[in-house]
Amino acid sequence: MSKVKLSKSKYCKCVQCEKILWLEKYKPECAAVKKNESIVGNGRKVGELAKGLFGDYHDIPYNEDLTVMIEKTSKLMQDKPNIITEASFSYEDNFCSVDILKNDSDGVEIYEVKSATEIKPYYLDDVAYQYFVLSNLGITVKKVSILYLNNDTYIRGKELDINQLFNVEDVTFEALEKQDEVRDNIDIINNIMKTRDGDNEPLTGICVNCLDKDNPCVFWDYCTRDLPKPNVFDISLMKMDKKLEKYYEGVISFEDLENDDDITTPRFVEQIDFELHDREPKIDVSAINEILDSLKYPLYFIDYETCQYAVPEFEGTKAYQQIPFQYSLHIIQEEGAPLKHKEFLAEVGDENMIRHFAESMINDMPKNGSVIIYNSSFEPARNREIAEMYPDLKDEMERINANIVDFMVPFRSRKYYTKEMEGSYSIKKVLPALFPDDDELDYTKLPGVHKGDEAANAFLTLNEKTPEEQKEIREGLLRYCELDTYATVKIWEKFKEVTN
Question: What is the pTM assigned to this prediction?
Answer without folding.
Answer: 0.91
